[in-house]
Amino acid sequence: MAYTFQVTVDSTDPHPLADWWADALGWEREPTDEEFVREMIEAGHATEEDTTTHRGTLVWKAGAAIRHPGGTERAPRVLFQFVLEPKAVKNRVHLDVRTGEDDPRVLVDRLVAKGATLLHEGRQGPHRWTTLADPQGNELCVSH
């Protein structure tokens, strides 16, 4: 049997990081159903402490997700999950963002302007990539 998966990224502030990645990839943030959140609180299944407000919307504090505009059939969902501790060491897994026909340098420059940090320019034979860190220090690579 084959299984599906989502990618989960630990984050001390998941909602702004989800916004950053949605913009970086051209993906969509999954909407939060405020009415459902309020119903869960009223029913005693959650508390006000389980929520926060992001861009004027009541959301779950525990995390935020993004998805490809073509849905999860096109690419796995990415969940940004709240954790208390900031990132301390190099990621053991990271995302490789492939630009296809677009110039990867244009994306690198845009991401750096939006808070990414340039870490490394890599090359193996004819293959080239740029390693960045997102605003919370998670590594990613950009290539064709």
Counted by DSSP, the helix tally is: 3
Helicity, as a percent range:
10-25%
Q: Strand pairing plus helix content: what structural class?
A: alpha+beta
Spatially, the strands of the biggest sheet line up as 1-6-5-2
Instruction: Calculate the terminal CA-CA distance, rounded to whole Å.
Output: 32 Å
Radius of gyration: 17 Å
Q: What does the overall shape look like?
A: elongated
Described by strand count, sense and barrel closure, the largest sheet is:
4 strands, mixed
Which series of helices and strands comes N to C? EHEHEEEEEHEEE
- Sheet-strand content, in percent, reads 25-35%
Describe this structure in words.
- The chain has 144 residues and is α+β, with helices and mostly antiparallel strands.
- The two termini are 32 Å apart.
- The mean pLDDT is 96.
- It contains three helices and ten strands; from the N terminus they run βαβαβββββαβββ.
- A four-stranded mixed beta sheet has the order 1-6-5-2, with helices on one face. A four-stranded mixed beta sheet has the order 7-10-9-8, with helices on one face. A two-stranded antiparallel sheet has the order 3-4.
- A hairpin with a 5-residue loop joins strand 9 (127-133) and strand 10.
- The chain has helices at 14-25, 34-42, 104-113, and strands spanning 7-11, 28-29, 51-54, 57-60, 63-67, 78-82, 95-98, 117-124, 127-133, 139-143.
